[in-house]
Specification:
Blueprint lengths: L1 H8 L18 H7 L3 H4 L3 H15 L3 E4 L5 H6 L2 E3 L10 E4 L21 H15 L4 E7 L1 H8 L2 H10 L1 H25 L3 E5 L5 H4 L1 H18 L4 E4 L8 H5 L5 E3 L6 H7 L4 E6 L10 H14 L3 E4 L9 H9 L1
Parallel strand pairs: 1-4, 4-5, 5-6, 6-7, 7-8, 8-9
Antiparallel strand pairs: 2-3
Length: 328
């Protein structure tokens, strides 16, 4: 299945609709089996790799994704994170922005590509490649430029500048896309088979179609041009009105969530791979096996090229539901 997925991502017809993910898909059961706490996996390459591989080893789902949070680029730039050592399954979050104005984001940020945990993540990717790289595809996951901007900049100042000095914000986003491209390239060199751009905050479903076209699309397109192919652009929310523009970013595939009408999306994305769109909460975490099977069947009938969860998995997602998703 690994080779079929790689063929699919390269644009070849494979005659099947594989089930995998480029988003975070670790589980509580997998962590427990490895004797790991989630918070410690972010600081140790071996533990990070073992956690990422645990879902594949439990279910056979032929994919792994690293890192296990989207905040590493923000941390590398200087944002402060909280790792929730006292909460069992909480992912890291930014607790203090790095800058108060987008004017502070310049080409100098590219000097920080190897800061923070970036090299540790690359070490974990190398370990994953050696462990299961011949059996599963490996996603190197990065935030989109606008999502990263939300992590590192004071929100009030950002939104003011978007209204009063839009070009300053656009310039900052281009700087961030160059920075992220270097990180994505490092992840590929370390063993990732493709890059997933998880642009939650920059999705037209979040920021709106007009602001997406003005602010996000140009930098997102540049990022995808700079990254080694293939790449998957993952967006949240109802992006139906912006699907044609999303396809123009040049991403190898677009991953959508459960709010998107897949049949309508398939009509628009005639020449772009469409991945999606199982609800990670209502179906995969809280649903029963019959609901998972029905969701997979519905996505396949709609014509998706691959079955993906609509977003990161909730760690408490039952392993059995993932196994049912894998079987279809």
């Amino acid at each position: 299945m690994r080779e079929q997925i790689l063929d699919l991502l390269s644009g070849k017809k494979i005659g099947t609709q594989p089930v995998f993910s480029g988003l975070i898909h670790i589980t509580a059961e997998g962590l427990e089996r490895e004797g790991l706490a989630l918070h410690e996996t972010h600081h140790d390459a071996d533990k990070m790799a073992r956690a990422a591989a645990s879902t594949f080893k439990l279910t056979g789902m032929p994919s792994v994704a690293l890192p296990l949070d989207l905040c590493a680029p923000a941390e590398a730039l200087g944002a402060e994170l909280k790792f929730y050592e006292d909460v069992a399954y909480q992912f890291p979050q930014v607790t203090k922005a790095w800058v108060n104005s987008t004017k502070e984001i310049t080409t100098e940020i590219e000097n920080k590509v190897n800061s923070g945990r970036i090299e540790l993540i690359c070490d974990a990717l190398r370990l994953l490649k050696a462990d299961i790289g011949s059996d599963a595809v490996i996603s190197g996951t990065i935030p989109g430029p606008y999502t990263l901007l939300l992590y590192i900049c004071n929100p009030a100042a950002l939104f003011t500048e978007m209204k009063k000095e839009p070009q300053v914000v656009i310039d900052a986003l281009f700087h961030l896309s160059s920075f992220l491209a270097k990180i994505g390239t490092a992840y590929r060199s370390a063993g990732a088979d493709f890059i997933t751009i998880h642009d939650m905050g920059g999705s037209p479903g979040f920021i709106g179609p007009l602001k997406y076209e003005q602010f996000v699309y140009p930098a997102e397109k540049q990022l995808i041009e700079l990254l080694p192919k293939p790449s998957v652009l993952s967006v949240c929310g109802n992006v139906g009105k912006s699907l044609a523009l999303l396809a123009q970013t040049g991403a190898s595939a677009i991953s959508v969530d459960q709010t998107v009408d897949l049949i309508a999306a398939r009509e628009v994305l005639k020449d772009t791979l469409l991945f999606g769109n199982l609800d990670p909460v209502a179906t995969l975490w809280q649903g029963d096996e019959a609901q998972v099977h029905e969701a997979v069947s519905r996505a396949k009938k709609a014509g998706v090229d691959a079955i993906w969860p609509g977003c990161d998995l909730v760690p408490q997602t039952p392993i059995q539901n993932i196994a049912v998703m894998q079987k279809g």
